[in-house]
Hints:
By secondary structure, the protein is of the alpha+beta class.
Amino acid sequence: MATVEITELRKKYDDFLALDGVSLSAGSGELVTLLGPSGCGKSTTLRCLAGFLDPDGGDIRVEGESILRTPSNRRDFGVVFQNYALFPHMTVAENIGYGLKLRRCSKSEIATRVYDVMKLVRLDGLRDRLPREISGGQQQRVALARRADGDGRHRPRGADFRGRAGRPIGAAGRLGQPCGDA
């Protein structure tokens, strides 16, 4: 895990100033939660961090190096949004293992890591179900499991890190090693 620093981040949508000088830092191993009312900039901050949005000002640094010019697919960050973006035609296990498949991990490694993360988030027994066949809370855990083992060392989480009832849904674990390092 790495040190992440956000300094004086600004983002404007037309006439609406979504971020006005947001600064925060997170050290290795720290869990940081962004809390606030709707529209205060939590998701915009996370989208800038992950590289889905370009900020209008400020900087984002990992281990002291700016990542603003680093494309999102090379930032090694992921965000679990409230729309879980599960593939409706894939099973729970296939959704969780999709990032590993894209990274060309072996089938046996994918199977092992998917099994491990499914146990961690209490989805074992649901591996062959489609997203429409599981509850909203289970869908959220699939999305979290995909991030926990999918493709990144850094796993920022927004307000949706908690279940719909407001209770924590569990730790993601440290399963995000590169292929072959499990």
